[in-house]
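Journal club prep, notes for RB
We'll compare a predicted complex against what the paper describes. Inputs for the aspartic acid case:
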Amino acid sequence: MTKTAQAPNEPVLAIHGGAGTIYRASLTPEKERAYRVALAASLAAGQAVLVGGGTALDAVVAAVVSLEDCPLFNAGRGAVFTSDGRNELDASIMDGATRAAGAIAGVTRVRNPIRAARAVMERSRHVMLIGAGAEAFAEGQGLDMVEPGYFHTPERWAQLEAARASGRVELDHDGASRQAAGSDTKFGTVGAVARDRHGNLAAATSTGGVTNKQWGRVGDSPIIGAGTFADNATVAVSATGLGEAFMRACAAYEVAALVGYKGLSLDAAVTEVATVTVPRYGGKGGLIAVDAHGNVSMRFSTSGMYRGVVRGNGGPELAIH
Ligand code: ASP
């Protein structure tokens, strides 16, 4: 899916809800509708910010919070479980205007991890906080804290049990895991990229990581340059897929480098990273990106990626396969 901006100052927002094996056959019309409703709600939340003259930063937070609150996705409520049966959440955000960035990893009680990442960016002297320190910081900033059970969903627990039985660490949307769990549900990490009226870019990503991950494992999503990157001079990017490969590929920054140094078009850069660079390091997944001209690219090496884009006051364009 590649889109070009129609008007120079028209704001644009793109989101993803995870890339992976999404069997057409197992996606019932009801389920597909549920995903589409959730994706549209996320786009509407971000779009309201942008058409109201708000910033790209506020828009990506609004879009990601909406997906974190939805149990269909592997972020916030509905996140996947670690091998010891906990939800450890990661998130990051970057402001393309200043390259300010914030990230948190391994939190278990912050309702909306992306808000905590933003608080780290704007209200701490640091870029990344982890675990208990990140939680204490979030609480001190007055963010919504919840009991760990808030994140628990039966579908995710079934996925953990299946992954434990097979001894595998799995992407939440991995087909084998899904089938073994006897469930055809498919969920994913979430992310958003936006360009506002002023031409500023921002990117945000939030995840529960991968099912049956060792406790303490951190993937690409909270790593600036791997799962998230934004710079007005080039692009804003959010990634989803096997974090270890995206980290080794420095995937999000690689898109910016291909555009900035090699002169590739946005879509050529995103396509190369999604289908060549990341697979070289043993992973699959997808990336969404927007540039300062309002071009959008959403590419993946898996069979599907929940995604959507909205421009100005327009209606949402949604796609899965
Ligand atoms: N990138 C995430 C991680 O490895 C997982 C995903 O995108 O589904 O933590």
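Talking point for the session: The chain is about 35% helix and 25% strand.
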